Amino acid sequence: MPQNSTVPKILIVGGGYAGFYTAWKLEKHLRKGEADVTMVDPLPYMTYQPFLPEVAAGSIEARHSVVAHRRHLKRTNVITAKVTNINHAQKVATITPPVGDSYEFAYDQIVVTAGAVSRTFPIPGIADNAIGLKTIEEAVAIRDKVMSNFDKAASLPAGPERDRLLSVVVVGGGFAGIEVFAELRSLASSLVGKYPQLSFEDTHFHLIEAMGRIMPEVSLKTSEWVLKDLAKRGANVHLDTQVTGAIDGNVELSTGEVIPTDVIVWTAGVMANPTVVRGGDLPVEERGRIQTRADLRVGTPRSSSKAPGRPVTSRLSPTSRVVASAASACRTPSTPFVRRNSSRRTSWPSSVARTPRSTSTRTSAPSRVSACTTASSSPARSPSRASSPGSRTAATTVSRCRRGSASSASSGAGGTTCGSVATW
Ligand SMILES: Cc1cc2nc3c(=O)[nH]c(=O)nc-3n(C[C@H](O)[C@H](O)[C@H](O)COP(=O)(O)OP(=O)(O)OC[C@H]3O[C@@H](n4cnc5c(N)ncnc54)[C@H](O)[C@@H]3O)c2cc1C
After folding, report:
1. What CATH code is carried by the domain that includes residue 370?
2. One domain, residues 310 and 245
3. How far away, in angstroms, is 244 Cα from ligand 1 center?
4. Ligand 1 centroid vs 415 CA: distance in angstroms?
5. Ligand 1 centroid distance, CA of 344 (Å)
6. Residue 282 CB burial class (10 angstroms; 0-12, 13-18, ≥19)
């Protein structure tokens, strides 16, 4: 995409839900030649994460949960790379492509939407043996593992190894955990019908939740109804219980119980993407999230006559107005691309209600309106964990990930296939 040096340059960091929609809306709102929009993401597609539980259970195909950037963004300069540093004082970002040297990219406005990563704790074996649920590759890995374990179990006599292969442990009783748990339970129930050697009673499903209830976002009554429904479906939910280890094919619990299993799904929360957040000079709070105003912009309003945090769109320069429309795009709740791409509209487990995407409402920061972020990590759940810019912490260890083309069918590009909790 040719760049015009005389027009403002807008850089979008991340082409996930918020980044993709920001670019798409800017293409609609901007007049020709009004601004150059560049979007940088290591993946060539946007992942619609709410469909990942259905992908893990095989109720929809992986390609129906991803949207190829280049297919839909016609006027955006799409760069498949990582942003590894943001020097907002100089308005320069460092872009690191998968091959070749890093380079600097000067911008006028930046939209930071690098998302969240799976949050893990230094629990022995989790980073190596558990599979997260943040990427399409992880969802496909879960499905593949469950299905191949049924194949293996069908040729074994009843006994401990067969039980282990037919046991699934999901860690985390939030939305993602409950959804994938319910979906996998349904998958297993339908699979047993295809294997005369196996019965419903041979399958074992365990959900581990550290708190005394599941899904804190919904009412207690609703969450208890979900627990009853899961119990009817033969699922075991361990409340007030923590995983203390995941070694040698066993999940160890704080209650002393040991669950032999070959499938551990890790959905115990998310944290702010450390690569982007800590690799720059944007204001970051103690939990590693970018501090923004209520309108998701970094900076303070120009006019003191306005209420604190209230956008002063009418007084903004043309360039800043662009950011205002980007900020509004960040909050757009529609999903037309995924609906169009999806062969079938899926409904979530009836027991699971959807909630609006969480946004940070913190107000602070030093300078004028200049950057828009989306706070995609769960504010209540992100840990405070230090990390050097661009480094992987224990919480974000990527192990046994390999490049592949497994599931990015509609994008036509390779993704990363993972056998463990993964992040960027
Ligand atoms: C299983 C599951 C179910 C969910 N269900 C719901 C739901 O029902 N309702 C709801 O509102 N929300 C739901 N969510 C949450 C929702 O999907 C997220 O809030 C949303 O995806 C956040 O969008 P985002 O653009 O901030 O981040 P993401 O969509 O995660 O996008 C981040 C992008 O940044 C890219 N990136 C990462 N690092 C870099 C870097 N260094 N440089 C450049 N790019 C980078 C990533 O590749 C990714 O494409 C669910 C999430 C999950 C995991």
Report:
1. 3.50.50.60
2. no
3. 28
4. 16
5. 22
6. buried
